[in-house]
User: Fold this.
Amino acid sequence: MTWWSLLCGVIAVAFLIVGFGMLIRAGVQIYRHVRLGRPDPHRAGPVGARLKTMLKESLGHTRMLKWGIVGAAHWFVMIGFGALFLTLVEATGETFSPSFEIPWLGNQAWYGLFVEFIALTTVLGILTLIVIRQRQHPRNVGLKSRFAGSNFVQAYFVELVILGIGLCIFGIRGFKAANGLLPYPTWAAPISTWLGSWLPAWLWAISVIALIKVIISMVWAIVVARNLSMGVAWHRFLAFFNIYFKREDSGRTALGALKPMLSNGEVLDLDEADPEKDTFGAGRVEDFSWKGWLDFSTCTECGRCQSQCPAWNTAKPLSPKLLVLALRDHSFAKAPYLRAGGGVDPATGEEKMSEADLAAYAHADPLGMLEAQRPLIGGPEIDDQGRNVGGIIDPEVLWDCTTCGACVEQCPVDIEHVDHIVDMRRYQVMIESEFPSELGGLFRNLENKGNPWGQNNKDRMEWAKDLPFEVPVITDTIERDHEYLFWVGCAGAFDDRGKKTTRAVAELMHMAAVGFAVLGTNETCTGDPARRAGNEFLFQMLAQATVETINDAFGERTSRKIVVTCPHCFNTLSNEYGDLGGNYEVIHHTQLLNRLVRDRRLIVRKPVDRAARQDVTYHDPCYLGRHNKVYTPPRELIEASGVTLTEMPRNSARALCCGAGGARMWMEEKIGKRINLERTDEALDTGADKILTGCPFCKVMLTDGLTARQGAPAEGAGGRDIADVEVLDVAQMLLAGVKGER
Ligand code: SF4
Ligand code: SF4
Assistant:
């Protein structure tokens, strides 16, 4: 050992002690931070299933690989982070002695090849990610960039660290080769051997580069430890936990059913709930569960959610990424105050700290105090020092969400945006009575009339008028030969466009001799819009009444099949009523019709002339597709109908929402381009004559979009004549095919 290698070694050890020490301390701080959230005790098990999902999603990169080359590049970088840890141990030894190698392992040819390969793929992977970040930089693509609003300095730092470490590995190995110290055959270290043939035999360079490698690694550790909210770095550790503790132990994303309202870790029984003791949604950041706090801390700022969000894509202020980042920054800023014993006592609504303690805290941490006093929801408010002392989340942002689930579907670390957004809406509606004025009418209509439009329930069977057969209405219990309860839904009963779908489905079932009956005037709204708008009281009221009605209708029958045309009803009936004693086998009409076509109980008369085939496109309803993963049956049905399907660029799991979900159907859209217009333009750009869908709400939104474009054709459809384009439900197209009316 020479004096310079001893010096290098001592410096390296000093960095390692400080770096690892700070990192371990920071890990404990994050743990304490996350525990500030409310209890949520049902996320730990079953351990086996959760571990499997975690390993599949992280090591298999199942979510990330959907993003093609980015996913592959990220996989190599992630593997490199773990697999190259031993090169840090080696580098530490090499600072003391240039010929150091890990005993036994260090001179194995396979190990040499392994490190060579992983180091190379790490360098190539990070270079790919660097290029992608630059190509998608907001300066090139503006707000379309998924990185718009992300912290670039932190991202550049992480990228340079990884690149630097990868290059140092080759530098060390290259100089080792030049000095004849590389213990591997050429095939096991081809790049390093080649580098060595060019480099001078400077022994000291091995220790110096090894020291640089250690310093880079430990500077990373120190910076990360000093920045607990640096998700771009911390997700390397936290993502594993976030995926493990995801809402669904089956491994599904947090879509479909909404998370029930929890208070103290248990589902809140609204009949027993006490506003002085219980938590009603999230009115402050500390009202989110610990999983919420873990979500906020884990966000990598990758912006995949943002890139898919219909609100953000139509120039509205909501970005799921920015929403999560705002909650993250606020949670970290407020945490010291909460740890000091601060917060609002739910029983009294008063501050928990004594006046003296509060004054002392405010004196010691004035900025933290300022942050702690900011409301969770509210518009911006700038104080005389230019600081925003207004809300963390703007009300416009909160109410822009259509609950389409595109963010949840794409998030690589399983953040549960929709549940968090609805939790905030719940508090605003049930405790603050603060919501867009249009929702007041919706809530009143649902409460008084049992449907969102405030129509008379006696008109619920209007859709069946003039049908060439009698539609059986259940008066007591469903009859034996009625296999299905046909749930019509409010849109299917009251909206003229929805009624056409209902009639088509009824006709098709009748033609295929499927026994069905309806509830007629006994049907009411399932409560979906109330729940997504945050009015859990109203949802529970409607849902309990509906479950009772349906259970009565089925009586003692064990086979409880329901067919629905509305994906929102489909979702609520199949995924949310189980908690209230309503367990049914629910099927969407596209699934049933597809089955009937396959079984040849419905025969489509296809056009003989292929040139006469109509061009159609299909819009995936969010609550059928993303929330319930029904993508194939409607497409198979379309294919079977003898038409030519052209997909829109955003389809299936990445389909763009029509803008109606999350009770947005009943709210004004005041900012940016209307979402339904954006989607209609995309549909028209396919050149389709017919825009098909499988949801009455999507049908309304797309029809409105089409009407707007037909009034101003120059603005959409690339100037082609769109006068004859129409929006249809898949069932209507099938009916025409079966009747040979095309
Ligand atoms: S659910 Fe849809 S609209 Fe809401 S934040 Fe996510 S992507 Fe945006
Ligand atoms: S997709 Fe997930 S990790 Fe990426 S920015 Fe959005 S919330 Fe964060």
Summary: Residues 308-311, 318, 320, 401-407, 417-418 surround iron/sulfur cluster (ligand 1) (CB under 6 Å). The chain has 30 helices and ten strands. The first helix runs from residue 3 to 34. The chain has four domains: 3-244, 262-432, 449-597, 604-739.
